[in-house]
Structures are given as structure tokens and as C-alpha cells.
Amino acid sequence: MRNEARKDMLISGSAISHKQKLGKTVSMYAIKSYSMKLAAPDCFPGADWYRAVIDLNDDITEVLPYLNAELEGAVYTHDSKVLLWNNGKNKYAFRPNEIVVAPADNSEEAVKLATDIVGQVNNIWIRKEEIEPSFDSKKALPNILDIYKLLPRTNCSECGSPSCMAFAAVLRNDSSKISLCPYISDHDYSSLMS
Ligand code: SF4
Which of 51, 97, 162, 184 is the most buried (most CB within 10 A)? Predict the structure, then answer.
């Protein structure tokens, strides 16, 4: 199936190689109908995996705070109406009329991922009376490499870590530890990370 999907990609010559009409449900669901297309990852030309782009015929703006409350580790930006979620296997981006999930190896996996996430969204919406919606905008943890770039990179170990890279990993989880490095001030670090 991976070869089939790849062949479709090359024949079409566009990012969209596959489109399906899926799912008709009853009105108690947040998502009643949708279509799904398989798209190549924008940032990795030639990659052998795809993004499943699920176009929703329903606006799920009202559902996002409930997803934010229920999906562990979700990062929600209420003003932008965007919720990002990584379940450890796949990455999801929810917007009012779209859900994107990656990676998918082929169209079969993409259809399954789409079916599963639509089912999960609808299940959460059905249980909304039991859920306290969360409008909190959680900020994602900074990238270790981005932190490392802010450090002196002399690997002097005065902070107690064997290298600046190791100290960057410490800082990712606890930025207050920046005081252990005598070569960058707390104020400088905070202003650079903000
Ligand atoms: S004290 Fe600062 S410069 Fe030295 S290893 Fe730690 S982070 Fe790097």
C-alpha cells in the first residue's frame, strides 16, 4: 500500500494524492461529516510518510477547550483557535474546520487515524456535561537545541552538568536552574527565551 500511495503522489504531481468522502453521523456529534486527503509533508520533500488532512464540514471551535481539558499534554492557543497534541505516536493539529495528523505510512493508515480521531473528538463532545472546559493557553516546552544556542558553549562544567548541552536539558525542565551557570544572567536568559 505504501508503494501505491507513493505512485499516486508521483502521478498527480501535487501534494494531494488521495481524497475520500467519509463518515455521516447524527447531530449529537461535533463532527458530522468530513473529507480526508493525504498530503506530503511540506518540510520534508521525499519523505516516505504523509499527513492526513481532515477537512471538517462542521466548525469545532467550541470543542477545542474540551479537547484541551481531556487530551493530556495538549498545547492550546485560545486566541488563535489552535490546539496541538502529541500522543506519543502521532502529532495532531486541530483548527476550527480542520484536523491534521502525521505521520501516516499510507492511505489505509490515514483513514484509520482520521476515523479514530473523529471518534475521539465526538466522544469528548458527547461527554461535555461532565468536562470542565479549559481555556488555558499552555506554552510548549522550549527546544533543547534552542536553549543550548543561548548558553556560552564552553563546556566548563561549572554548573555541575558535564556540558552545555546537558545543562540545556536540565534548563528545559527547570529554567530556575539558570543561576547555576555563572556566565549568563537569569535576566538575560529569561529575556532571550521569551
Ligand atoms: S557553567 Fe555555563 S558555560 Fe559552563 S558548562 Fe554549564 S552551561 Fe556551559
Answer: 51
